[in-house]
Amino acid sequence: MKVLVAVKRVIDYNVKVRVKADNTGVETANVKMSMNPFDEIAVEEAIRLKEAGTAEEIVAVSMGPQQCQETIRTALAMGADRGVLVKTDDELQPLAVAKLMKAVVDEEQPGLIILGKQAIDDDSNQTGQMLAALLGWPQATFASKIELAGDKAKVTREVDGGLETIEINMPCIVTTDLRLNEPRYASLPNIMKAKKKPIDEKSPEDLGVDTTPRLTTLKVEEPPKREAGVIVEDVAQLVDKLRNEAGVI
Amino acid sequence: MSVLVISEHDNTELKEATLNVVTAAIALGSDVHVLVAGAGCAAVGEAAAKVAGVAKVLVADDAAYEYGLAEPMADLIKGLAADYSAVLAPATTSAKNIMPRVAALLDVAQISEITEVVSEDTFVRPIYAGNAMATVQSSDAIKIMTVRGTAFEKAAAEGGSAVVESVAAAGDPGISSFVGRELSKSERPELTSARVIISGGRGMQSGDNFPMLERIADKLGAAVGASRAAVDAGFVPNDYQVGQTGKIVAPDLYVAVGISGAIQHLAGMKDSKVIVAINKDEEAPIFQVADFGLVADLFKAVPELEEELGKVGL
Ligand SMILES: Cc1cc2nc3c(=O)[nH]c(=O)nc-3n(C[C@H](O)[C@H](O)[C@H](O)COP(=O)(O)OP(=O)(O)OC[C@H]3O[C@@H](n4cnc5c(N)ncnc54)[C@H](O)[C@@H]3O)c2cc1C
Ligand SMILES: Nc1ncnc2c1ncn2[C@@H]1O[C@H](COP(=O)(O)O)[C@@H](O)[C@H]1O
Question: H or E segment at B68?
């Protein structure tokens, strides 16, 4: 079975993002970029399937500017076999990403596609579900455990009340939650080896996909700032303040 | 044109999250209809009809919708959506699973977790873990969106008298099935609707220490939450997680115990009215958002807190 994983290049999760002074977006100049953390989990899961003999080939797919190559290289260094970069400098929204992914899927014919549940920049939590709809495939989102058996996948999902298990037909879409696995670090030899692995480059035009955004961002602003309050002396003072000053207990 | 709200329920009870969405729907300025899709869910339909501001309730009662599986649910909603200018659902795991599928079937965008309705096509939503707020305008004919509950008041659960209509099921594509659920049982309030929350982090050291927080929670009628680190370490179940990728909460009082205050945790609780932090490291970033900070060892401070609350009759 071939497994496709989606890897997005995002501002590193440790960076405190700043809104641009002209309110058109957030500062991205000289900011550290990394693979979306949920996508690292997706890559790790695919590698484990390969190690278990369930998957034969892992293809890492990224959409965006030339620098997404680096994100794909990270996936290759972790253990993916080859990459596909759909290169564009235009803004891509989840529906457009899902359409581009579908076009890649039509060419690659994977048995399983793993995406992150959410990109930590746009916080959309949409792409996997949209791709499933476009393909007419079943979906298992927010996965914390995946078991493949024959033409079915049994997936445990993190839901608001606890955990839920569903069974879906293959081929299918899975999106990762935080507790699915702990991604490995790429070793130096593997980083060297990854430099030789192939990355195929395409454009949205090659794939025949219209990526025109449906949402226009009118402005981006700082959220209201929260001021630090006071440091209390002891527990008795804390209870007194909560009761008599804030009136919350 | 009217707008459609997708209700959240367990086939027996209408969940409160639906009420916040009704308020957002009313802000769009047209008739509000509510869809109740489930199995044996007539009582939910009746409850939805009583919600103030709702004009009509559509009930799709069919075995295919019993567990809210995305594939049949999305097919149903897609079929109904053509009659509406907008379809809104709460930003719960169940609707987050279904709604983007609906949007793609309709070839429209989804606007995730709106916190404000500016006009019928313009909305505010948080990005980058709430470190920026984006105002976005949609050019799609049907607006599909999820609504962040903490940003909208709840509509009154009583006072309405909507008509209830049943709608035909849209069939089950038969590509997914429900196996089972392991839901955490608790007598305490739900995290997303609790007035008070006390959360523990990695500083708690073990799940065995959480009863310390539970005793405080019981005194205050509070829910118990946690940081990702506490969940990952197995101290408490996943549904306790508060944050960017967990639950978004905004109680009157949030007490963070042994939590450092990472951006991703703050994203889930920084809109709380009053924040208390108990942490032994005075440099912990949580103190930058706390109204009241206590620099102390939690293993000393929390039992003291229990005692002090007892002294004031709690
Ligand atoms: C993609 C992604 C998504 C994430 N989503 C979330 C999310 O939704 N929610 C979330 O919470 N995190 C999330 N995180 C993780 C986040 O970055 C932090 O790692 C996490 O919040 C840290 O949890 P913590 O504060 O409990 O642990 P730590 O950062 O380790 O802090 C523990 C704190 O306890 C204090 N402490 C220790 N012992 C004591 C004691 N005896 N008495 C008093 N204080 C003590 C320490 O001083 C320290 O400040 C996410 C991360 C990523 C990459
Ligand atoms: N530009 C992109 N390139 C590759 N994968 C993407 C891209 N955008 C989104 N994804 C995938 O879709 C997931 C969810 O993203 P989102 O719907 O934007 O929150 C991410 O975790 C990625 O796996």
Answer: none
